Each structure stands twice: as C-alpha cells, then as structure tokens.
Amino acid sequence: MNTPYNLDQFIRDLPKAELHVHIEGTLEPELLCALARRNRLTLRYATVEELRQAYHFHDLQSFLDIYYEGVQVLLHEQDFFDLTWAYLERAAQQHVRHAEIFFDPQAHTDRGVPFDTVINGIRRALEEAVPRFGISSRLIMCFLRHLSADAAMQTLEASLRFKDWIVAVGLDSSELNHPPEKFVKVFERARAEGYLTVAHAGEEGPPNYIWQALNLLNVSRIDHGVRCIEDPALVQRLVRERIPLTVCPLSNVKLCVFKSLEDHNLKKLLDLGLCVTVNSDDPAYFGGYITENLLASQKALGLTRHDIYTLTKNAFEVSFLRPDEKQCLIAELDRFMTGEAVRHSPLEGAR
Ligand code: ADE
Ligand code: ZN
To answer: Is residue 215 part of a domain?
Structure first.
C-alpha cells in the first residue's frame, strides 16, 4: 500500500520553536512603508515593490546597510509593538510555540529613540501573544559588534532596569574584524548580572571566532556557526559539549555564505552529530520564515522526516525555557508525531 506521504504538510503543521530571529529583520516592506507614512518620513523608494527590489545582497555588510536604513521608520513604542505583533501573527500561523527574539537597542538609541520605547513596545506584544496565540517567548539583547565595547557596556547598563525581561545578551552586526574577544569585559559583566550569553560567530568569520565565543564569552549557543566545519577539533568540541548552532539556511544563501541551498552544510552538520536548529534570522529580507526555511532545506538537501523532527526537538531542548516548560512543548511535539504516524499509516491511508 502506497500512502501519499506529504512531507510538506508535516513541516507546516509541526509545532516549532524559533531561536534566531532579529525582530528588526521581520520588518516587511509593507509595514516599513506604512510606518514611514505614519511617522511622516520620506523613503528613497517610491513603492513597496521598489523597496523589495533593493533586497539583493552580496555579503553580510550589503544587507546590514539596508537593514539599518529600514529600522529608521521605528520611532514610537507603538511602532515596536506593531512590528513585534506582525511577527507573532506570522509565527502563530506557522505553529511556532516558542520564540527567542533578538533586538538591537543600539540601532535605535543611536538615533535618539530611548531604550524604554524599544523594549516597552516589544514586551507588550510578547505579553499579549501568550493568551492570544499561545506563543511563549524570551528576549535576547544584542550588541552591535561594529560599535565599541564601551558603547556595548553603556547599553548593558541601560538594560539593567529591564533585567527581568531579557534572558540573554548576544553579539550581531558586521562580524569580520570584530572578533568576540573585543567584548570579553561586557560579557563578563552581563554574566555577573545574571544574563545568559550567545554570539553570532562563524557566519562570515573564521572558526577562530567560534572558539573565542566559547572560551572567552562562555556562550550557551552559537548563532550560525556554519564555518565550524573547517575545523575538526572545533566540531569535536561542539559535539562533545552539545553546544547548539542556530542555523539560518535562507539567510546564508541570500548573504552568499553558500552559493545555493543545495550547497548548504546543514545536513552534514546534522550527520556529524551537531546539535543544529533551523531558524529564520531576518525573514522579511531573506524570503521566508521558519516554515519556508524548513521546506526549502528539506527539498534542497533531502532532509528526512526524522531530520526535521530532530531539528525541531533540538530547538525545544536548547531553548532558554525552564525544564518544565521544555518538557511540556516536547510532549506536544511527540503527541503530534504519534498522531502523524497514525494519520499516515497504511491502514489509515486505506480507509
Ligand atoms: N543582524 C541582523 N541579521 C544579522 C546577521 N545575519 N548577522 C549579523 N548581524 C545581523
Ligand atoms: Zn542573526
């Protein structure tokens, strides 16, 4: 009996966790233009379509230039609420049950937008999403690594009033020539204040930046990390200590880290025994949210149903949720898997 087995539908329906999404990177062109209008700002693009046409990148920096231009439409608390709410609506449609969300306070405070305005808007949306969508969340505050360590320290200090709302600090923006070691003191202080730590490393930067993030910043997870594969001793360490990589396949192709999705090393990383998760990074710019990342990766790399399950279970396991919260979501995932197996068994298919 040949039951039609719809892997696409399985991916769409699966309960998911997202661990690597920049809230500013979820700013869709339509909302960007609407906020520009609401805030009486003039864009250098006449239409939404024209703006979308500008989304062609040849590396991380060419993307960041457009990304930092885009965030300039975010001025008021309501703008940050609307941005976050729009992401949560999409996430809910994709059965995201838990989201760990980066925000870049310096991209706003450097333009004169107060830290409070940013975090209050984001936080209000995250709180409302719990009863409305059943989505839990955690916030991760990133330091822009192209700015100074002193500026990062000032941002850390500004965040302390909101310590209870932020689970971890991270490191993002231009990776090359801004190694993790630049931020050792800031991360030490952050850990002393009770924050967990993560860092973008090994996206464009060399494996050595991943070593630094582990050894000097004591990170719990590496964001991206795909270049670890160039260093077998590093792979061994990541496997042995089960240090997760939050991989973002569509992002890596858009930013030319890999020539095509077929060339992506996601499947190799999985097969090497690394704890990998799939994430969307900046979905408004890279052509898809978590489901599209999983769908496209499955097709390009021939991921199996078991691979997809592993990627999803990894994300729940290495999230910053409490153990009881993780258990609850993993139980939901496993109930879904059992239901799926029944729905697609030959007997069920014969009915
Ligand atoms: N900020 C937003 N997206 C980023 C990425 N993919 N890498 C580094 N910094 C970022
Ligand atoms: Zn990122």
So the answer is: yes
